Amino acid sequence: MADINIGVAKEKVEAKGFLDLEVDPQLDLFNEIEKMKKEKNAIVLAHYYQEADIQDVADYIGDSLGLAQKAEKTDADIIVFAGVHFMAETAKILNPHKKVLLPDLKAGCSLADSAPPAAFKKFKEQHPDHLVISYINCTADIKALSDIICTSSNAKQIVESLPPDQKIIFAPDKNLGSYLVKKTGRDMVLWDGACMVHEIFSLEKIMKLKVRHPEAKIIAHPECEEHVLKVADYIGSTTGLLKFSQEDPAKEFIVVTETGILHQMQKSSPDKTFIPAPPDNGCACNDCPHMKLNTLEKLYLCMKYELPEIKMDETLRQAARKPIDRMLEISARYGL
Ligand code: 13P
Ligand code: SF4
Known about the structure:
Blueprint: H1 6-16, H2 29-40, E1 42-47, H3 52-57, E2 60-62, H4 64-73, E3 78-82, H5 85-94, E4 99-101, H6 110-113, H7 117-125, E5 130-135, H8 140-144, E6 148-150, H9 155-160, E7 167-171, H10 174-184, E8 189-190, H11 203-212, E9 217-220, H12 226-229, E10 234-235, H13 238-247, E11 252-256, H14 262-268, E12 273-276, H15 296-305, H16 314-333
Parallel strand pairs: 1-2, 1-3, 3-4, 5-6, 5-7, 7-8, 9-10, 9-11, 11-12
Bound molecules: 1,3-dihydroxyacetonephosphate and iron/sulfur cluster.
């Protein structure tokens, strides 16, 4: 493939959200990406739900909190975010002077989409004496309307950091919200949003797996529905699930979250068996269609042309930064 000029590359990104270019199948993309990291002083941050090749080429793989913390601390000039849009946007909010790249701008999130800013603003106005805690899986507009951001690994501590009589709106994930209501005993007002991936796990199929693997531990992400969480032996963020799988003596695990995480579980515990929980459709495992929009080819092209880039309005960025800073401060206080 002949190289294209930057003007044509920008047009391609505008048209499709990514660089729709053929990549020479003879190229060793792992090598090329490593070379570009050094030449450009770039860091590749990847979420556990990315495809295995992307995880293998990443400098850091983590959950949403770990990725935000890493993005805040990095001294790289370019942050290449292998994840979804709200994650790359969070990195940009924390690093206004760095170039933040996302291999496919259309890698969105059904949970973030379930909170449209205008409707959420009205909802907030109906509860004027409430503070807003928003899960990091939301747009910058929702972050700007929030008091504190949380992730699944610090949500309990964030809720408990507020005075017991403080009224709280929790958005946008109703499943994580009701899990937290139970965990903390706080009666929060919940926004009615959910993740399309975690909402479709089949309890019936999980229980059938449990019959066939009676010794297996069921481990689940708190974005799952309540009836699924009820049967879980452990509930946690992706990093929490990975750590549990490493530390628990069980030899088999039924993993109720997006399947990308199985790559690290299998790598760090090759002697254990990880069974992906099936969704309520014909599939045997559950992939996030947004996360899986990124490919190694798109990652390579994005580093080569330094496109697509996350751009943000500065006023919005500053407003969205405050609740993220509060989250990072509280997390540091709890040693998270
Ligand atoms: P964590 O990795 O923070 O647990 O979040 C899961 C998720 O759904 C990210 O989109
Ligand atoms: Fe969003 Fe769910 Fe995909 Fe995570 S798994 S990016 S919450 S749609």
